[in-house]
Specification:
Helix content is about 0%, strand content about 25%. The protein has no helices and five strands. The chain has strands at about 10, 20, 30, 40, 55-60. The mean pLDDT is about 80.
Length: about 70
């Protein structure tokens, strides 16, 4: 059985380095405005901190490089 396409397995890149795939997370990561706890909110979940119940959550910035072309 070929494990090259299996989730969680490292794949060799063209330059010899291995790339490790990011884990699949269904939902969006938010930080609580009161206690700072990390929350993953999915569609249909209540917008509320799981630790303290605070209802103001801030969306965390993506780690993916986003580049815009300006002229």
């Amino acid at each position: 059985m070929n494990s090259a396409g299996a989730p969680g397995s490292a794949t060799p890149a063209a330059d010899g380095a291995t790339t490790i795939p990011m884990p699949l997370v269904r939902g969006v990561e938010y930080r609580c405005g009161d206690c700072g706890a990390r929350n993953i909110i999915k569609g249909g979940d209540p917008v509320r901190c799981r630790q303290c119940g605070f209802r103001i959550l801030y969306k965390t910035r993506t780690k993916r490089l986003i580049q815009f072309e300006a002229r």
